[in-house]
Amino acid sequence: MLAIASAAVFALALLFDLADISSDAINNGTLTLLGLLLIALHFAGVGTNTNWRPSGRARTRRR
């Protein structure tokens, strides 16, 4: 999910750069750093559930 958000932020930064849109609070550098932060969090495993296991009967096998 964070990778999708970072792709959207990078796309927004590209559109701002192509249209020469800039403001004091949000500029291309800010959006790029935000995108890189989201990618780093994605690579670190934040927002993923790696401890997921099926619950109930789906976990047991019949013999």
Features:
63 residues, 0% strand, mainly alpha, single chain
Topology diagram in text:
Layout: H1 2-19, H2 28-44
Helix pairs in contact: 1-2
Description:
This protein is mainly α and 63 residues long. It contains two helices and no strands. α1 runs antiparallel to α2. It is rod-shaped and about 65 Å long. It starts with a helix and ends in a 19-residue tail after the last helix. 5% of the residues are buried. The model has no long low-confidence stretch (mean pLDDT 83).
Mean pLDDT: 83
* Count of strand segments: 0
Helical percentage: 55-70%
Radius of gyration: 19 Å
Report the order of strands and helices: HH
Strand content: under 5%
Tally of DSSP helical segments: 2
End-to-end Cα distance: 38 Å
Low-confidence stretches: none
Structural class: mainly alpha
Cα shape: rod-shaped
Major sheet size, sense and barrel closure: none
Short description:
56% of the residues lie in helices and 0% in strands. It is built from two helices and no strands.
